[in-house]
Amino acid sequence: MTVSAELIVLHLTKTGDNSIVIHTLSREYGRRSFFVRGVGKSSMMTAFLPMNIIECEIAENPRACMATARKPVLVYPLLGIRDSLYKNSITMFMSEVLYRAIKEGANEPGLYDWCRGSILLLDALESDFSNFHIRFLLELAVSLGFRPSVEELAPFAGDDLRLISRLISEPFSRAMLVPMTGAVRSRIAASLLKYLEYHTESALNVNSLRVLHELLA
Fold first, then answer.
1. 93 and 65: one domain?
2. Domain encompassing residue 42
């Protein structure tokens, strides 16, 4: 049986010269991995960049341990992201956090639609997005059902609690304008990752945070 599904690409694992496993998020399947054949051409591999929104035909086989994704098509070109080194780095961070924080098989209600909206919002922003990844972490915690409050974040925030409080309470557009140095952004992001680690009971080890720190300093 084959069905069409819209997927957000979180990560890929190369399994052969012409095959990969894509780790994805979708409305129908939640966090799930799919086998993809015939990806030797670099032009096809561009469909699987981090946080791309693609449509695939999903083929289930009861005799196979993993379903197959076929005929990937980009739903949105995301030119605002792909033409920006900074936005591309933010999407690498977003995809790595989601890949590590959400366990295979999990399907949180509303998570896919929130994540999809976040990608399209970042794609559309023309300026003032240096705080985007921090707001993303706060909204992810909400989407996962943790409902972070200032009191809950206090043990993780240290001297940055006042800034985090502003980032939580301000509307999105104003939160993007909260002035911070790159070092402070990196420190707050690391604090919020520790908060997520505590609630997901997982060691996230998000390597792309270092890249963001260097770019957004």
1. no
2. 2-74
Structural contact between residues 11 and 95, judged by C-beta atoms closer than 8 angstroms? yes
Longest dimension (CA), the chain: 55
* Shared-domain flag, residues 130 and 153: yes
Residue with tokens 């990806």: 39
Number of domains the chain contains: 2
- pLDDT score, position 42: 61
What is the pTM (predicted TM-score) of this model? 0.93
Ranges of the chain with pLDDT below 50: none
Residue 115 and residue 139: Cα distance in Å, rounded?
Answer: 9
First to last CA, the chain: 50
* Beta-strand runs (E) in the chain: 2-16, 19-26, 30-37, 53-59, 68-74
In the numeric block, the tokens 């997520």 are attached to: 196
